[in-house]
Write a structure and sequence with these properties.
With 152 residues, the protein is α+β, with helices and mostly antiparallel strands. It has three helices and seven strands, in the order βααββββββα. 33% of the residues lie in helices and 42% in strands. The relative contact order is 0.24.
Length: 152
């Protein structure tokens, strides 16, 4: 199972970073390139333990839907969402936050299994892991800009 780990240092308080990372409207802003929007479940505000959300987005030129559920929440240090339904065979996305002297270290840990068995493994090596790494890092970088622009 591939694991993508991406760390981002943000010059903003841990509570601000934590809340921005679980904010539906901010998620939409940080994924604008894929036209991501909430279409079912929680559609606005902050995601909390037990919440489910269905995202609609365009990846690889194909409109897709993915439903995720928040299965762990330890405010303001960590929350975990898992795919309930979607294009992957499975995924777990852990969001971790550590308070530093002048800000917060945010870490995304994305563990996933590609769909379609052997074909999915081949696709993962060819392009999927690179695509997901880019998607996660771009979202984190956008969240950093929002946090530092609005909260420093």
């Amino acid at each position: 199972m591939p694991v993508i780990k991406y760390k981002t240092y943000i010059k903003a308080p841990i509570t601000i970073c934590f809340d921005l990372a679980r904010n539906v409207e901010i998620h939409t802003k940080t994924t604008a390139k894929t036209n991501e929007k909430a279409v079912a479940g929680v559609k606005s505000g902050l995601l909390n333990l037990g919440d489910s959300i269905t995202w609609e987005a365009t990846h690889f030129g194909i409109k897709q839907r993915l439903t995720a559920k928040i299965i762990e929440m330890n405010m303001p240090f960590r929350f975990v969402d898992v795919m309930v339904k979607g294009a992957f065979h499975s995924f777990t996305h852990t969001h971790e936050f550590v308070e530093c002297d002048t800000g917060t270290m945010m870490t995304d840990i994305f563990e996933y299994k590609a769909p379609l068995g052997v074909v999915g493994l081949f696709a993962d090596k060819l392009f999927l892991e690179k695509y997901m790494r880019s998607f996660i890092s771009a979202r984190a970088d956008e969240l950093k800009k929002i946090a530092e622009t609005n909260h420093v």
